[in-house]
Design brief:
Helices cover 42% and strands 17% of the residues. The protein is of the alpha+beta class.
């Protein structure tokens, strides 16, 4: 029987790959102390001597040829080091170590002493470890000891570690380490590590033995652990500790949006029946020192920045139901500090989320409850305001530290470098901003926090290198949820990207659709060629009619492509691009179906010419003809007809559009009724508008209703219905359906570009329809709500005669 053997160097590779920076390494050791229930963690970085001096001294020792040269170099090194610490930190420990150089040490002894001058110590007063625990847990890489435990015993903290790799952080920081630990009922024990031994390619991991030796506790506490790391690999300086470790990393290790809890207290000064509140002190439990000096403060987000916040978007999700909200499982709260508007609170139901995210409630429950806060800063406005107060430089520096998108905080501790303006964009914030043609909500202008828990969100797992979350269905759903309901909403509200974002959305359609449509037409034409050779003379007319219609579509696609290029160059009217883009998208949708039908026809006609097959051919002819009819109604969108208002019969146009959708209505079992108020038959109703734009608006309203009535009917109704009412007296056009309706929370959003609750919706249809109304100095509004509070109708104002 064979078993795996593990090379000793594997441990070195694990440490280098999984612990990606000095800051992450220190964080791993902090979390170990935190899980050991230490109230605080002390980190002391002793750097009395510069790393350059130590490195140069070791190099000279290595170059010494004999004992005389070695002694000479030792004297020079002692003087250089003594001169360097004189007047700054006359460290007695350094002097004691230098005194050992007087006893004729070997080269290796000298190098060992020099490597121990600078060191990092991590101290805690947690539960400690006895000899057995040191061997069975601490020396077991990937130990499962924390996997089955969610909370610590006494402080009820959430266990932060679960991979058993945190101890490899010592290897990242330095080549030597000493771990000393003791418990309440045992003496202290220590382990000495020389990680360079593991770099020997000839050794397996079991070839390297480690001694667990009894020793005296180094601190007067009942229990605890002290880790001392020397032979440091990085060049630590006062500036690196204060600015990079504390200023850039440890400050961001804590959630900047953590709520300060209040606790009730009673004392003699409080009258009977009254309760006095006082704020709890939530001091971050990490003490960082340099050379044993005073603690370096770990500050939260400074007032110079918090005073200039533009907007906060808060999201709370609980698949089991939100507190104080019987129907909702997701709540967003948009707070605009600059405009001073009332907070915009939106509640989403289970049905809305499962539909918008194309998922099930069971999948949502696997995520567990989460909270997120996104704080947005407009850097241009921030510059203006901060400059006015004379603190722009400080405000910018503070924003540079905290910005970077949404950081992930598991049980209060940041996951790796998530939410950083450089490195991995785990949420795709910048890429989505670029796709939208604008850059208002991106990583450099947002500070965010996603709060998750090991116990409540087991499907959201850190990557081993702590750079984000492991890909999983739960992680993907969280991304979609944050993007659709928080980030997109924030973008919509800010409105900074304006016309450019709207046009960019349409550009995607305009650029890709024509080529795809031509490919579909080619497929259909090839199918018709095969069909023509197999059918009888009596159906050849239908085949030829289909061929003619396809030829027309091909020519129209070319014309619309030319229109899009002109619109793209001029950029004067978004409706030009909107019209072209929507037409292309609609034609593509229909052609996808019709080309599929030609393939069905080929298969059937190769076998027989039954009446059913001939009927299918006639139906195909009618459907493609309907596409052509719709294209002709939109002709004013092409270069020759752009922006041309004309007097035309709106009732006739509506009737033509409805007839063009007949096949689609039949396919989806939708009953569509077109009528003039209080009249049994249609009659001419003249309007002076751009025919193509009006067609565009009506098509978008109809397709919107067709989609939603398929998702479900109004309670108590089963039939799918759409009604289009033209009222010549009030000069309005009203379209209603009996679908699920629009939530009151979305009544101010439905006409904005990009807002959609459809799984792959682009949020353009209703926006374009509203733009058509605005172009004609009219309005498109929601009709009054139904008795269940939801909106199911749109009213389009018509120009007065």
């Amino acid at each position: 029987m064979a078993i795996f053997s593990v090379a000793a160097r594997t441990l070195v590779h694990l440490g280098a790959e999984l612990i990606t920076s000095d800051e992450v390494a220190i964080n791993e050791l902090i979390k170990n102390a935190f899980d050991a229930e230490s109230p605080r963690v002390k980190i002391d970085i002793h750097i009395p001597i510069s790393h350059t001096t130590i490195d140069e001294s070791i190099r000279k020792i290595d170059q010494s040829q004999d004992i005389i040269a070695l002694k000479k170099e030792i004297e020079i090194i002692k003087k250089n080091i003594s001169d360097e610490i004189t007047g700054s930190s006359n460290d007695s420990r350094v002097q004691e170590l230098l005194a050992k150089l007087d006893s004729n040490p070997s080269k290796e002894d000298v190098k060992s002493i020099l490597e121990s001058l600078n060191y990092i110590s991590i101290e805690d007063t947690g539960c400690g470890m006895d000899a057995e625990t040191l061997e069975s847990v601490f020396l077991a890489i990937g130990t499962p000891s924390k996997l089955t435990t969610n909370d610590t015993k006494d402080l009820s903290r959430k266990i932060l570690g679960n991979k058993g790799i945190g101890r490899l952080a010592m290897m990242r920081l330095g080549d030597n380490a000493n771990v000393t630990s003791w418990t309440n009922d045992s003496q202290a024990h220590e382990i000495q590590f020389d990680w360079r031994l593991f770099d020997d390619p000839t050794k397996e991991i079991n070839d390297i033995t480690l001694d667990i030796r009894p020793t005296k506790p180094p601190r007067q506490t009942p229990a605890g652990t002290v880790i001392t790391i020397s032979a440091l690999k990085s060049h630590w300086t006062d500036e690196k500790v204060r600015n990079k470790l504390v200023g850039d990393f440890l400050r961001r290790l804590q959630n900047p949006f953590i709520k300060i809890e209040e606790e009730s207290v009673n004392n003699d000064e409080v009258q009977e029946g009254e309760t006095k509140k006082k704020k709890k002190t939530l001091g971050f439990p990490i003490d960082v020192h340099i050379n044993g000096g005073a603690r370096i403060p770990i500050e939260g987000m400074k007032k110079v920045l918090t005073d200039l916040v533009q907007a906060d978007m808060e999201l709370e999700f609980d698949p089991n139901g939100l507190e104080d909200c019987s129907a909702g499982i997701l709540r967003t709260n948009l707070i605009d500090y600059q405009r001073g508007n009332e907070p915009e609170v939106t509640i989403r139901t289970e049905q809305e989320l499962t539909h918008a995210l194309t998922t099930s409630i069971d999948a949502l429950k696997k995520i567990g409850p989460i909270r997120a806060t996104i704080r947005w800063f407009n850097r241009d406005r921030l510059r203006q305001q901060a400059t006015l107060h004379g603190n722009w430089k400080a405000a910018k520096a503070e924003l540079d530290i905290w910005s970077g998108g949404i950081a992930i905080y598991r049980d209060g501790f940041r996951v790796g470098f998530s939410g950083q303006s450089t490195g991995e964009d785990w949420l795709g914030l910048d890429s989505s901003a670029l796709k939208r043609g604008g850059f208002a909500v991106n990583r450099i202008q947002t500070v965010g926090a996603l709060e998750i828990s090991r116990a409540l969100n087991p499907g959201l797992v850190d990557r081993s290198n702590r750079e984000g979350l492991i890909e999983s269905p739960e992680a993907n759903l969280v991304r979609e949820m944050l993007t659709k309901f928080a980030i997109d909403e924030l973008r919509r509200y800010i409105g900074h990207e304006g016309q450019e974002e709207k046009k960019a959305k349409l550009d995607d359609i305009v650029e890709s659709a024509p080529a795809t449509i031509r490919a579909r037409v080619l497929q259909a034409e090839q199918g018709l060629t095969d069909i023509r050779s197999k059918v009888s003379a009596e159906v050849q007319g239908s085949v030829q009619s289909i061929a003619n219609h396809l030829h027309f579509i091909k020519n129209e696609v070319t014309r619309f492509e030319e229109a899009s290029k002109l619109a793209g160059e001029r950029r004067e009217d978004i409706l030009e691009l909107a019209g072209v883009g929507t037409v292309m998208s609609g034609v593509l949708h229909e052609l996808t179906r019709t080309t599929g039908h030609t393939r069905q026809l080929m298969q059937k006609l190769s076998k027989d010419e039954s009446p059913q097959t001939k009927a299918l051919l006639s139906k195909l002819d009618a459907e493609i003809k309907a596409i052509n009819t719709r294209l002709r109604q939109l002709d004013p969108l092409t270069p020759s007809g752009r922006h041309r208002k004309e007097l035309f019969d709106l009732a006739a146009l509506l009737n033509t559009i409805v007839e063009g959708y007949a096949a689609r209505f039949e396919r989806h079992e939708v009953n569509c009724k077109l009528f003039i108020s209080n009249e049994s038959e249609l009659r001419p109703v003249k309007v002076n508008m751009v025919r193509g734009f009006v067609s565009l608006a009506i098509e978008n309203l109809i397709t919107n209703s067709i989609y939603w009535v398929q998702q479900g009917a109004k309670p108590g109704r089963t039939e799918r219905c759409i009604s289009i009412e033209l009222d010549p007296e009030s000069r309005t056009l009203t379209l209603r359906d009996n679908g699920p309706g629009i939530s009151p929370a979305d009544k101010n959003r439905v006409f904005t570009a990009g807002f959609s609750l459809r799984p792959r919706g682009q949020g353009l249809g209703l926006f374009i329809a509203a733009e058509v109304a605005t172009y004609h100095e009219a309005k498109l509004v929601l009709d009054s709500a139904d008795d269940d509070g939801r909106f199911r109708g749109f009213v389009l104002e018509l120009p007065k005669e």
